[in-house]
Design a protein that fits this description.
By secondary structure, the chain is α+β, with helices and mostly antiparallel strands. Helices cover 48% and strands 11% of the residues. A six-stranded antiparallel beta sheet has the order 2-1-3-4-5-6, with helices on one face.
Length: 354
């Protein structure tokens, strides 16, 4: 729902052409058309709305230097019981705003330049009415300068559409237009200040968060009660089988930055070994095999004879047997040959050869 106010109702009495109380129900309609001959009160309705909101009627300033009236120019037949009242409504609240002609007119208030001093401004909420200032009304409506905004955005008069150019100096026009388009330089400065302030606030919040965390940790630590002997930790070596590694000692003497970095380098290598243990063990058997150069060469050289292993082994055994007999013959050990149990095997070999 929108927070913009819409005009719900307008009521006035003894105002300009209208002597009796006159009520118009707008019912927050988006479009309303007033039609009628000149001099029958169409402009009076707009003057009543302007007076209720701003406390002034801008068109009266045109005749300021032309006449000095002796009575209140908008009061019907100069009657005292004169007021205008509007009801504004949005999705959250309803405002009933009333401008009433003061019973005791200030001295010189009939001069058009003192027109604003003729009126009391009141606000009614929940059947309770109180006098308020124009600044308070501006705040309720949501405008810094309701009189300026009404002139710029809400009311263009039929008889003087060039009023903005005629009645204001160049500086005043520039100030008014800056409301529409903004002073870019000033706006950039404000944005920069806001960003700087935002950064400072974030830094403060960040520091406060750290401080809060440290206090929390301190409080938790202070609240701990423990038996020091019971929870005293015994130093354990990472490598029980080698107590000569310096970084694994309980006390390290002469620790320098370079030595520390070397320790971290070695420990990181151990860490990587543990993390990739399965891969290392899988690759290790191939690495060991590659280092057995002689074994690999023999395997490659004799792999073609694997299927004839039994045959070759038998021939090898026979060759060994023949070599042994030849050695005995050369040594003239005939009795050894006759007594030797391998003689049948030798005869068997010679028979196969035949």
């Amino acid at each position: 729902m929108s927070n913009l106010f819409k005009l719900e109702k307008l009521t006035f009495r003894n105002f300009k052409l209208f002597g009796d109380e006159f009520v118009i129900n707008f019912n927050c309609n988006e479009l309303i058309v007033f039609d009628g001959p000149n001099g029958h009160g169409k402009t009076t309705i707009y003057d009543a709305i302007e007076l209720a909101l701003t406390g002034d009627i801008r068109r009266l300033a045109i005749v300021e230097n032309q006449q000095i009236p002796s009575d209140v120019v908008v009061a019907h037949k100069n009657r005292r019981d004169c007021f205008v009242e509007i009801v504004l409504k949005n999705s959250h609240e309803t405002l009933q705003i009333k401008r009433s002609l003061k019973k005791d007119k200030p001295q010189g208030a009939t001069k058009i330049s003192n027109f604003k001093k003729l009126w009391d401004l009141s606000l009614t909420t929940d059947s309770e009415s109180k006098i308020i200032t124009q600044q308070e009304l501006n705040k309720l409506i949501g405008s810094d300068n309701l009189e300026r905004d009404f002139t710029l955005f809400h009311y263009v008069e039929q008889e003087d559409t060039a009023h903005f150019l005629k009645m204001k100096t160049e500086k005043q026009r520039a100030e008014a237009l800056s409301v529409l388009f903004g002073d870019t330089v000033q706006m950039k400065e404000k944005v920069a200040k806001v960003k700087l302030l935002e950064k400072e606030i974030k830094d403060i919040i960040k520091d406060k968060s750290k401080e809060k965390k440290l206090l929390s940790l301190k409080n938790n630590f202070d609240s701990l009660t423990f038996n020091e002997k019971k929870y005293q930790l015994e130093y354990r070596h990472l490598l029980d089988w080698n107590n000569q590694i310096e970084w694994d000692k309980e006390i390290i003497n002469g620790l320098t930055k370079d030595k520390r970095d070397n320790f971290f380098f070695e420990l990181n290598k151990i860490k990587r070994l543990i993390e990739h243990k399965e891969y290392y063990l899988y690759q290790r058997k191939y690495h060991i095999a590659v280092q057995q150069e002689k074994t690999l060469n023999n395997f490659l050289g004799y792999s073609q004879y694997v299927s004839r292993y039994n045959e070759l082994k038998g021939n090898f055994d026979k060759a060994q047997l023949i070599t042994s007999i030849i050695n005995d013959l050369n040594a003239s050990k005939l009795e050894t040959i006759s007594e030797n149990s391998y003689l049948p095997d030798l005869l068997d070999c010679s028979g196969q050869a035949a």
